[in-house]
Amino acid sequence: MKSGDQASSKKINIKCLAYIVVGVIAHAIIILLFQLLLLRIRNPKVRLGGVVVENLNANSSPSKPSFTMKLIAQVTVKNTNFGHFRFNSSTFMVSYKGYLVGEATIVKARVRARSTKKFNVTVSVRSNDNMSRNLQQLSSDIDSGIISLSSHVKLEGKIHLFKISKKKKSAELDCDMDVNTSLKQIQNLNCK
Q1: Element (H or E) spanning 143, and its range?
Q2: If you compute the radius of gyration of the chain from its CA atoms, what whole number of angstroms results?
């Protein structure tokens, strides 16, 4: 009888070992799927929803052309990650032909996991004296009724996943837009 007990005990031990191995493999597959599907961290996306022009004044005199306006831009930050995105203060910059003509501060904020945050940024835009090399071009643009501007913003921060992982990520936005001086509105808004 001893050999029968040993044989059945050996079978039970082999079955236990097989169940343990199958369990470990199943856990490894579940952890791998969890890592691949849920913990994959992507860069958040920044979009410019729309831009409103206020208080536009343009002077096309050849000796001293100039423009001033206030732009109100709706900025959208979309976070597709399973953790929240907390970004630092940043600067929204507006330029004309490479010359900085306006900037505004975007205060630090937090975008919840798998959500979108919208906020308005108000930028005072003004031509400056540093554009002396482009006075003819500026005068010509104002006479034509179209002032071409570009904007740039970069939001840098961290994605916080389940309070166990923090990963640095950034979201960047570059846009070109035309200000129609007669209609006092934005045309041809193209963002990358």
Answers
A1: helix 135-144
A2: 29
